[in-house]
Specification:
By secondary structure, this protein is mostly helical. The protein is 64% helix and 9% strand. Strands 1-3-2 form a 3-stranded antiparallel β-sheet. The radius of gyration is 17 Å and the shape is elongated.
Length: 127
Amino acid sequence: MKIRGDAALIRQLNDLGKAGRAVKRRGLSRAGKALYQAMRKEAPVATGATKRRIGQARRKDDTVAVGVRSGADKKTGKIPEQYAHIIERRTGWFGRVWSAEKPGVAKRIQKEIMAAIRDRIAKTRRS
């Protein structure tokens, strides 16, 4: 799943150049973190490999992808991305988490971007 922000806010941040883009990335990453933590909390556990491989990745287009990351689990050597869709079909945990979190995602993105803007302003004032 990809996380995008409020289109108007994202355009305004893009217009600010490099600093605006950094603020946007930080805000989207913070919002994504809350989502993947909720996914980890609800993930079914047999060996724990899938739960450990849930995370986020920033894309080149500045979206944030949240889900099961590629690669092998260091503890078990299993590759959860190969079988996570089967677990989802059987248990529906991903859909349940997304349904619960979806209504608040846009608001969380705005909140986190505003927090990132405040952090950036405070950092600029300290310099």
